C-alpha cells in the first residue's frame, strides 16, 4: 500500500470570528422609500390598505373646526389660516354630493351643536328636501329643543335652497315661490294644483288640462329636486400649503387621517404577548415612516419656498434657478430622496394658485422669453451687456453676443434704435 503525504503549503483556514459593519436596507427604509413619493390621494389608499391588513393600527376621530365646520386632524385648521385665500384641502380627492356641499355652505353659520342637527336633517330629507316628520319630533329624537332644530332649518334654507326641510312638496314649492318673489305671479290654478293635482300625479293619473299652465310655470320657476343634481367635482388636492404671516412665508404639510394613526389601545395592553408582537412592530414602523415622510416633506418644501420666495409671491417671472442637489445639500438628504419627496406633490401658494412642487425647480423659462420680458419691462433702453446681467440674476448665463443674437432673432431693435423709437428726433424744416 502506498500512502502519499502532501505537505500543506497554503495557510490553514482561519476559524476566528470578526465583527464587520456594512449597510443593509431594512424594512423601515423600504417602507419609507415607498411612502415618500405618495401624494395625498395615494397616501390615503395606502393607509386604508394598511389599516385593513393590520388590526393593531387604528385612526383616531378628528375634531371639528369651530370656524368652518370641517374635520381637522390637528390643532389648527388650514382652511382658516388665510380666509381670503382658503386652501383646497379635499385631501382624498373624492367627489362630494350636493348634501355635503350644503353642509359645507352653512357650517360657518352654525355652532357645533347646530352642525350636528343640520347633518341629521340633510341626511334625513328625501331628494326633494322634504322631511317625513315634524321639527318637534326630530328635536325629541335628538334630545335638543325645537328652537334649535328650527334655527338649523333656517340656516339650511339660507344656504341656497328655500324649500329645505318642508313637511311636504306643496310647502316646499310655496317656500320657494316666496323666496324668489314669484308668489304673486303664480297662476290662479297653482294653489289648486298644489292641493289636489300633485296627489293625482303621484298616483299616475293624467293631468287635467286646466292644470297644465300651472305645471309649465312650476317647471320654469321651481327646482324642487335639489338633491338629484350631479355630484360636485372636487378641487385639486394639495400636499403643502404656503401662507404668509407677518411678511414671512411658512409651509404646512396637509394633515389627514394618516396624522391620527396610532397603535390600538387593546394591543398596547397585551404588547408583551408573542401572538401580537409582530403586528405591534409593523404598526409602530408604519407610524414612524409616516412621521419621517412628513418631516422630510416639510424640510424640503420649506427650503424650496425660501429659495423661490420671489416666484411664490410675484409669479413665474421671478423664478430662480434651483436644483435638487442644492436642496439635498441644504437639508442633509440624498438627492434621490429629495426627488422622491418632490414627485407628484402639489403646493397651494398665497395667490390662490396651485402648482406642482417640481415646477419650482429647474431653470427659468426659455431664454428667448426672458430676453423679451427683460426688454419689455426696462425703464430705459438697456444694452446687450446690461440684458445679460439681468438674465444672470434670473438664473440664465448668457454672453453678450448670445443676447444680441437672440434679440435679433426675436426682431427686437438694439439699444440705440429702441431709444430712438422712444424719443424720435424732431426734424426742423427750414423755410
**Low-confidence segments, ≥5 residues, pLDDT <50?**
89-95, 425-431
Oligomer: single chain
What is the general shape?
Answer: flat
Element order: H for helix, E for strand: HHEEEHHHHHHHEEEHHHHHEEHHHH
DSSP strand count: 8
Mind telling me the C-alpha Rg?
34 Å
Summarize the structure in words.
By secondary structure, the chain is α+β, with helices and mostly antiparallel strands. The chain is 46% helix and 6% strand. It has helices spanning 27-35, 40-53, 98-107, 112-124, 135-142, 146-158, 169-179, 190-202, 212-221, 265-268, 274-307, 309-314, 324-331, 335-342, 367-376, 384-393, 400-409, 415-422, and strands spanning 57-59, 63-64, 71-72, 240-245, 248-253, 261-263, 346-348, 354-356. A four-stranded mixed sheet has the order 5-4-7-8. The model is unreliable at 89-95 and 425-431 (pLDDT under 50).
